[in-house]
Amino acid sequence: MYNVDHPVFPKLQAVGKEITTKVKPEAIVVFSAHWQASEKDKIEINTDENAPLIYDFYGFPDHYYKETFPNVGSKKVAAQVTAALTSHGIDVESAKRGLDHGVWAGFKVAFDPDENPLNVPIVQVSLFSSESPSQHYDLGRAIASLRSQNIVIIAAGMAVHNLRDIRKTFENPRPLPYTSSFDEALKDATTSPPGEREQRMVALTKRPDARQAHPTFEHLLPAYVAAGAAGEDLGTQLWTLTEGSVSWAQYRFGDVK
After folding, report:
1. What is 69-91 written as a DSSP string?
2. Measured distance CA(105)–CA(3) in Å, rounded
3. d(Cα 194, Cα 198) in Å, to the nearest integer?
4. Neighbour tally for 167: CB within 10 Å
5. Measured distance CA(74)–CA(15) in Å, rounded
6. Which residue among 27, 113, 196, 237 is least enclosed by CB atoms within 10 Å?
7. Over the stretch 23-40, which tens digit does the pLDDT of each residue have?
């Protein structure tokens, strides 16, 4: 967010600009690694139309906790999400909640309030409490119809995310072996033909390097929601960068017209 010289910075800006100038959505529905439902087999939807920011991180300089990101929610869009999920037999509960940093930190780069403001509602939806890739793929399927209503679905996670090992790589950001191998495997699965995609993505979690790349799966699961929502649209890797114990890969499903 502050390191404007990092290669991911202009890539996020480009995605944001594409969304605001080409896609021009009616709203954004976002799934973050940092919100898992509090109850089993239930999804929570933020219905707060004036969501504050959640500073869900610790030990950073004071200015991190003073960040702002202007945003509005939408009860109407939340109701559309609820209807889509309940029609697929998914139990839903409304919540009054802020936007966690899995949303606002990346959005502040992609949708700079001064240079590329996002003037549409943002509705955050939780993940399931489980680590089941199939359950999250089905979650994506359940909301796929929102795309035809010009609602963009954003999955905010990371392709590789191992903070336990990150300190080991501060002096040398060369990607660890599992970072490179899992990043490549995720690309192969995500960009595979839609008829094969779910099976190949589920198989990722059984790889020997999966728990190295993701000691817990919450940063991987948003990708399954996005892939499930994609239907017959192909996945494309827009960009990737592996460094240390993380990968910054970005994907899009479908074409921008």
Report:
1. ------HHHHHHHHHHHHTTT-E
2. 12
3. 8
4. 10
5. 23
6. 196
7. 999 999 999 999 999 999
